[in-house]
Amino acid sequence: MKRSPITVRGAERLRAELKRLKTEERPAVIKAIAEARGHGDLSENAEYHAAREHQGFIEGRIKEIEHRLAHTEIIDVSKLPQSGKVVFGTTVELEGAEDGVRVTYQIVGEDEADIRQGLIAITSPIARALVGKEEGETVAVQAPGGVRSYEIVAVRYE
Questions:
Q1: Which residues pair with 96 in a beta bridge?
Q2: Is the pLDDT of residue 2 over 80?
Q3: Domain boundaries, the chain
Q4: What is the rounded CA–CA span in Å between residue 71 and residue 109?
Q5: pLDDT tens-digit profile of 42-87?
Q6: pTM of this structure
Q7: Cα–Cα 20 to 30 A to 88, which of 11, 27, 60, 157?
Q8: Is the pLDDT of residue 1 over 70?
Q9: Predicted pLDDT at 42
Q10: CA proximity to 120, closest of 104, 136, 134
Q11: Who's near 29: CB < 8 A, 6+ residues apart?
């Protein structure tokens, strides 16, 4: 199986969620199930069924995170050669050729992409257009509203 890239920060977030699920949420739901069992007839016990459903969600999420972490390659962008080229993990500042609006994106793995935080997936059209380019170059990106041009203002390895 191909290993998916993930940034150090993305891996830390997954590990923190995994720890919280195992040390806080799992014990809390086990306690809730035990308390609901104490209320008698399980067939009509909504609290019991809700707690069991929540337990299933927690266990599924734990398995999903463990699988992701086992099948990822953690890339520390600060240790990459500072070639000036856009690569996985770099933070890229762009200026729209048409409107002069500046935006900053970090190119990350699919699991950690969040456009609201400026994190774009390596597989996104804009990231694919940027990879391999360097400061000063202009790239054309196929966006939903048509082709947009951006100048690469800065490439940072942070």
A1: 150
A2: no
A3: 4-75, 79-156
A4: 12
A5: 777 888 889 999 999 999 999 999 999 999 999 998 898 888 899 9
A6: 0.79
A7: 60
A8: no
A9: 73
A10: 104
A11: 51, 54, 55, 58
Look up the CATH number of domain 79-156. 3.10.50.30
Tally of residues, the chain: 158
**How buried is residue 55: exposed, middle or buried, by Cβ count under 10 Å (0-12/13-18/19+)?**
middle
Instruction: Specify the higher pLDDT residue, 157 or 44.
Output: 157
Range list of H helices, the chain? 8-20, 26-37, 46-70, 125-130
Q: Which residue in this structure is represented by tokens 């927690």?
A: 58
Task: Please give the C-alpha separations between residue 85 and each of 60, 79, 89, 116, 135, in angstroms, as whole numbers.
Answer: 39, 14, 11, 24, 7
* CATH 1.10.10.10, domain 4-75, yes or no: no
